[in-house]
Protein 1
Amino acid sequence: MSIQKYKEAREIIELSGGGDFEGAKPESLVIKAERALNLTFPPSYRRFLLEMGCGNINGLEVFGLINDNFEKSTVPNGIWLTLNERRSIGLDPAYIIIGDGGDGTYHALDTRKVDSAGEAPVVLLSVDGRHSKQVDDNFGAYLLKVVTDIV
């Protein structure tokens, strides 16, 4: 179901002009990012990285992959940002930051709560990263909701 929602979101993005996304990333880079975070990406987020990388539509940034420089980068490189937040605020290593939540908060995948399809819920993290509130069941649902709201 998450993959289907991801596909619907991608169609909306394409129909509204395509946004400004990095573009497809090779499997080898996605694997390198998983190793850097010591996590496995949920299927819908992995597909997003492989097909779109990262980017924005109408000012909405979706964090993901730019290149393999995970030490010195900028947003929307979500891998770099996740590693940076682990170092700076002690972010739980189960989180993958995927978007800006506003007011210093972030949207993240919570890989501690993976379902039977391998999908992780999307949570809104507090500024200090110590508290979270679930906002969507998975990345596909999150992307569809935010894209629908912004287009």
Protein 2
Amino acid sequence: MTKTNALRMIEQAGIAHEVRKYELAMEDFTAERVADLVAMPPDQVYKTLVAVGDRNGPCFAVIPANTELDLKALAVAHG
């Protein structure tokens, strides 16, 4: 398995975690579908989103699978 940068950072920080593998078609690629495939509640599966701001460059948001990112709130938090 190829490790993502997020997984490397989690491991480097010593955060307890579990990696689960699943098969998923790209046209069905949603965090809620992943939660279903790994038999976990959507509020326990997180998606990592990246946004690029006008002033401060890229920022990351990590939110539960069953929620939507509030871009205005992210903009305020990111400055």
Protein 3
Amino acid sequence: MRILPLHSEIADYLRKRELERKFEKQKSLFEFSPSYPGLETELLEPRHLRIWSFRIDRKYRAIFIFRDKSTVEIIDVN
């Protein structure tokens, strides 16, 4: 699995909240195995929009969409 480079606004958001290291760790786990238990990857509601998320830490999640079968794009962190 491959994650596209982050948009500059998302990278700034991570930097301001000191989440860069946590994000990189979780990103590595996701690229190794999107279903890794610690990520708690889930399909968000409404399901027909096909928007997913994985956990960065207890407070933050990365929101993403699949661009194709092996590539995802992070569209938000909240």
Protein 4
Amino acid sequence: MKRLLPDQGLPRSSAVLLTEADWNVIHVADIGMSRSDDGEILRHAQAEARVCVTLDADFHALLVTGGERGPSVIRIRKEGLDATALAELSQGIWAGIEDALEDGAMVTVTERSVHVRRLPVVRD
């Protein structure tokens, strides 16, 4: 699958690095969405069958409150990643989360863990 849509807070050059590694990556700034709201970005990712990659917790909140099944979102909770570090992180975690992302998931990546929550999130 390896179709990503990195959000504005992430380095644009990471998309170039991942594209060179045969990933299909388009940064929001490259398609004129750098000032779009999170809902618009999610709708675009869903329409394009892309996984959103972001630093922003609002993407997960929108998926939960809307009872959405997608798109999948990876939230990076590691500040200050440069393009190379982000590309390496993405490649390093992909095999462990790919199946969940294809089915619809929210993934949170921290310094110590990768947490996957399947969509939709059902509240009791």
